[in-house]
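Batch manifest, entry 17 of 40.
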Amino acid sequence: MSVLVTGGAGYIGGHIVRLLRERGDVVVVDNFSTGSRDRIGDVPAHDIDLTASYAVNELRHVLRTHSVEAVIHMAALKQVGESVEQPLRYYRENTQTLAHVLEAMEAESVPLLVFSSSAAVYGSPESGLVREDDPTDPVNPYGASKLVGEWLVRDVARSTSIRAVSLRYFNVAGAGAPELADTVPANLVTLAIEAVTEGRAPKIFGDDYDTSDGTGIRDYVHVQDLASAHIAAIEYLRGSPASYSVFNIGTGRGASVREVLCELLDVSGSDLTPEVIERRPGDPAEVVADTSRVSANFSWTPTHTVRDMVESAWTARAHSER
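Output type: structure tokens
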């Protein structure tokens, strides 16, 4: 089975491509603005700006040439803070690239799509355990652009022969191999690693939440487990008659910010102490994925621990600095 991964040279995309390469044919489309060719080796890759007017025709050529049967759409802008500063750019690029992919798929009769969404579509949920049917109320343009993408995928799937799933990722970190490391310091683990390597104390935004240690609790999923969830999603689509489905992708278990940072400091051998600063506006006390739906429908179980995630991320960072 031939699979196209858009954004396949990125951090998560690179992990997915490596797993797919072990199972069959895979092809990558990326504009390499943030992705790296080093992540994908000799996998066939096409440098295409998916926002461009010519993108649909070029995508159609790729789909036809490689006899693609499924698409995993990863290509997107994903920095929350940047989305607040540049909302027009985020809405335009994240929805336009997806629309072009769907148009090319319909024209070439490619039947299966896995869409990379985000738990950011939930915003600040009232309940700590988040279900797919809970209200969606994103609090930043990035999350809103992902929700619009879900609507677009759903409506196209209902009106065409395309069958699709949206995967709502929770907090992703770790590395399946050093060369696949996340090189952008933009989440708890990567920001903390950057701080520790520079001799600065990693930050905790508030320690007065109603949680076991006062710090926020989140669902952290290892990127290798997330990558394997995409393979399971394709298998689900191949056997399901549903036109469109949504799944949370997490572990179903929460870890506090302090727990994660303590693991990192232990792995790194650092004697630094996390610095507690003021809460960030809108941060909920606890956000954990209800994974009952994905457990019931996918042949997939996350196997990595928070320790695995932190240790692999630290090792990968150390390798990249050699």
